Amino acid sequence: MRKAKDALRMGAMGLSTLFTCTLAVALMGYVLAKGLPQLSWALLTTAPSYLEDTVGILPDILNTLYLILTAVVIVLPLGVGAAVYLNEYATNKKLVSVIEYAAETLSGIPSIIYGLVGMLVFSNLLGSCLLAGALTLVVMNLPTILRTTQESLKTVPQSYREGAFGLGAGKWRVIRTVVLPGCVDGVVTGCILSVGRMLGETAALLYTAGFAHTLNGFFSGMSSSGATLSVALYVYAKEPGPGRQEAAFAIAAILLLLTLGIDLAAVLVKRQFQRRHL
Description:
Number of strands: 0
Oligomer: single chain
Shape: globular
Structural class: mainly alpha
Strand content: under 5%
Mean pLDDT: 87
């Protein structure tokens, strides 16, 4: 009976794994099959023209790059710095526990709520622009960066710190030369995965960054309304007209390939750092 039950459990887990993998492969295959044939040089390198009724996603690509770059530059020092303080400097363990619980709670809040908060705070101050969207993404991804870095810091053995202190190193020197290099793989992996979340975010940007498909430079674009690739996908999928559905599938294929690339990069970076420590 025990062997039969074990075989039944293994069979059920195998079927669940097969169903999940089949569903994921079918979804990716459908999106790529519909989207890759729609990709063209003209689509990737031109702006949309409503006078000529043509579609181009170059402004959306640039807006996505501007948004992610700004958000990462802001959220990475904040998240890593907060994690280092909570793990290495903070002495009030109850306060640290409360902050950890709050960060975990914020990580599970739906993104549409962040969008509403960003609209009420950042959009009212700055207007509907990419900077407001970037600041919203900062608030959204800060708990993830904080908790990922904090858990990575906890994996560094305490004996490393004690040995460095025994050699006469100061607190900050120990953190800079011993602790952070020992957990940099977790920090980089968390940062890469956060970039993947920013790349596919739509709900939080609908209320903050806007829908404009205009071509701007970095500084002018950050102060102007702009649609990212995910927002453009939403707009083109609902907008009637020739080439809109094709453009939506093309953007979906691009986002899928970028997400797969980001996940692969996270795995490769983690393996590379693990090899260095061996």
